[in-house]
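Issue 218. Parser rejects a valid record. Input:
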Amino acid sequence: MRLTHAEIQREWDAALAGPRMHHGWILAGRQGLGKSEFALDAARQLVARGATAPQPDGEHPDIHLLSRPPKDDKEVRKRAEGKPFERKRNISVDQIRAMQRRLTTRPTLGRNRAIIIDPADDLEKGASNALLKSLEEPPVGTFFILVTHRLARLLPTIRSRCRVLRFNPLPDAQVEKLLKEESPSSDAAVREAAVAAAKGSPGAAIKFIEQDLAPLAAIMRDIVAQGDRAFELRGALSAAIGARPNRERVQATFDLARTILAEQMATVPSAQLMQLADAHADMVALAGQAPTYNFDPGFLAMEIGSLLASAAPHTERANV
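Output the parser choked on:
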């Protein structure tokens, strides 16, 4: 899936054509806007500058991608076999230090090297501090491209040493067009719900369909609209999420819940805004804790449902 961000491309092209290319770049915006694809294309342009050797179409020895590695040896084997695999929760300081050791050598096919960190949101604290040292004193010809879905999670000192390219949400019509191309067999009503939930992110819309989030979205909206004093809707939400959801499904559930709370803020009376804001803030906090603590999926589902219920009109916070 290739997305067009004309303004960002123009800004990047202008920088690339300038006399001094900045060594650090942050690609910021919500997930599913094509930042990873842009990072790879940008890295290829950087390593090709001034190179006399032919540039490979596949993996490039001067482009280094740091992301969350497989969780264990079993998941490593799955990756080697081309199967879906589960990742660790963070990018570790050891990964950053290994990258820094490679920076002491010369690039292979030219004079430049590109480091992509995707997503930089997942850097451990120690990894962020280690990366900062490289950003403060970058080796000649080394460029860093940090992909982030939540810019505020990066250290201010990292942000201050990079130029930021902000990827804005796309119009619904463009998301719908891309969704038809990527998922032509999906039901029209489901596509409509996916576009509404995606808020301008084609990747989020595709995930909505792949993760079968339409039933979850309907239950969540019912909870926010009417509350759930008898806990019946929370039970239905737990069943819809599943008894053993993987990390990706849990993350998609949190993203959907935050989106539904955010969209409600534009439609409710001002007296209810504080309830929604509090529920949204608590949802963000819970989503941040979920990868760190091994919460029982049933517990997480009930907590998500309770936070949604706390945003309903005339709902007491005691239910949370």
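Fixed in the parser; the record now loads. The mean pLDDT is 90.
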